[in-house]
Structure formats: C-alpha cells, structure tokens
Amino acid sequence: MTDKGFGQKLEMEESTEIPFNYVKIRDIVKRYTPNLEETVRNLNIKKDGAVDEISDRAYKCIDSILDFYINIDAQRVEDIIESKIVENLKESGGFSHETAGALSVFVSRKYGIKIVTDGMHRLIKALLCGVDEVAWSLEKIMPKDMTDKEMTTCEHEFLKAKNARNAQMSTSEQNRVAKASGNMNPKQKNYQKSFEKAGIHVNGYGVESDIATPSYTEGHDDWYSHLSRESCVYYVGIDDFRKYSYHPLIKFGKSNCSIDIPISYILVNHSTIRNSFLNWLDSTDFQKRDVAWWWRYAMHGRSIETTIVRLLCAFNEHYRNSYGKNIVTIEMISFLDSTSTETKHFAMNCLDKNIIIDEALDRSKDAEVARLNKILSADI
What we know:
The protein has helices spanning 25-32, 36-41, 82-92, 97-100, 120-128, 148-166, 171-180, 186-198, 220-228, 238-252, 257-269, 274-281, 284-287, 303-323, 341-351, 357-379, and strands at 22-24, 61-64, 68-71, 103-108, 113-118, 133-142, 201-202, 205-206, 215-216. It is an alpha/beta fold.
C-alpha cells in the first residue's frame, strides 16, 4: 500500500490477520448507525460525490475512504451523534472537503493499515454522500514491535487530548475508552468489579453484553452508586440486586438506568408489594407511558429519586383502581424529606389525597411555580 500525495512514500503490505477491533467505515455505519443511511438518503443534498474538490491535491495525502480503519476500542462508536451529522450535511448541501479538512491518521507498520484517530464522523459523512477519496494527515507511525494494547492506548491518548480541547466526548464514552485501552483509574476499576459481580454491562464495563444481560449505554456512576455506594439513597447492594432485580430487569427493563435503577430499588426495598409490583410491570398500564415520562421535569440531579416516587404512585393508582384501596404509603418513601417541594406535593396528592397521577403532576408543578414566584418577588 502506498499513500498518494505530497511527501515520502509509505510502502506497506496489509496484514491478513487484522485484529477485530479495527473496522472499516462501512461496517461502522451498519453496526452502530443502522438507520442513518436511510435518513441521509431522504435528505435534499448532493449524494453522488462531494460538493467541492480537494484543494491543493499535489500537497496532500489522499486515499479512498475504504482504505481506512477505525479502532472501535479507542473511538466513541457508541456515541456517534447522528443528528449532528445530518445537521452538517444539510448546512453544506452534502460532504464538503473544505469544511471537513484532513483526517488525522496513525499508520500501523505491524498490520500495514491506516487508522483514523480523529475524523470518524467526517468519514461517515463521506461514505453516505458517495465520496470516493478524502485528504488525510499523518500524525504518527506506530512501529511493528508495538503490542495491540499499546496501539490502542496510543490512539486513545491522542483522541483524548483532541477532545479535551474540543469537549466532544461524553463522560460515558471517556469511561468506555479508558477501559478498552487499559487506562482505567481506581474509580473505573471499581465500576468493572461491581458490574461484573452484579452481572450487568454498562458501556464497556462488567460482563460482556448479550441479549440475556441487562445492558446499558451509559450511567456508570449511577449504577455504581446503586450497587456499591452505601451512602447513596438508592443503594441496594450487589447481593440483593442479584436476588431480586437481575431477572426482572431482563424481562421488564428498558435498558435505561434512569428507570431500571428505580425499578430495582423498589424490588429490593419493598418486599410487601414486590409481587404486585412485578405484575404491574407486566401490564399495559405500565407500558402505556413513554419511557422518558418517568423522569421528565425531574428534580435537578435527582432523576432517579423522582422516578422512584412516580413509579410507586403510578403503581399505587393502578392497584387502587383494581382493588379500591391503596397499597403504597408516604412512609414507604424513606428519602421523601430530602426531595423538592414539588416532589413532596406530588407524592402526598397521589398517596394521601388519592388524586390521579396526571392531575397530581399538574398541581405539584403549579405549587412549585407559586413558591418560586414568591421567592423571586421577595428579592425584588
């Protein structure tokens, strides 16, 4: 393989045994953004090539987009921002070489391949717009004696430095990449131990993700608090999680920690309602609400506690409608005194006054608005 463009030629022969974590861009799109291709196909943009030409070709490295690899252990493949890709394509009317600039590339002498270390989103846009070639700049040549782990660490450190300046990588993806590259700090090592013992997967940590395992794309610290941080108000411990929550979450969980942790908390802490609560999780009454409803307009930084309260109140309302009496009491919400005024009003309206949950939400919002208006008026 020889690079095209300005400068010294790189003579390389691609290995027949490339590690599984190095993936071509077509496979990245199929695996991690399966619906994006159709979305772009429906856009009113240029899709048979770039909207402009590569400028100063004689002075740049230029290669086919199919010649590059992405290291899925070093890149934020679980955090591809499809909306941003679509937005950029609309703004440029397609793929623009001038706007995209040159991809940052590492070359592996060991495997004879070019690895995009910064520019995965741009490579995706080029593929979806039918662009054949892109410009790239050589950032580093990794020698043949580098181990696979050292290569991933090297790529990760480069990307981390880039994103530290650009603030683009989410905390969840930073955690995942640290694990994949063998650069975990003590807190991240604790994540791994706790999740592995609990039998769950959280974006690279814990057991391997499969169809029978509760699996999450984010929420490392929330899950660690739930399983191992005893000072946390929604702590349950690993043993009780395995005993009471693990299998129900496989069946009823939403793969979102903001509702699955609250479900787990209730299953562990409220044995008197556990069986009835499980029956409710299997009902259309539970399934009818959009998942995000359970924490929408939640207390700032306290979405899990808010969802616990809403789950208990919604379950109680269903039980009351079925049997003519309540099964949940205010006293069962041990942390209620530490919640917001709005959440307290909501719980009391649902559980003490038997107000339906949707009306109780409206009332608690009105009460909070009145309280804030009073505070603001006093400050004027």
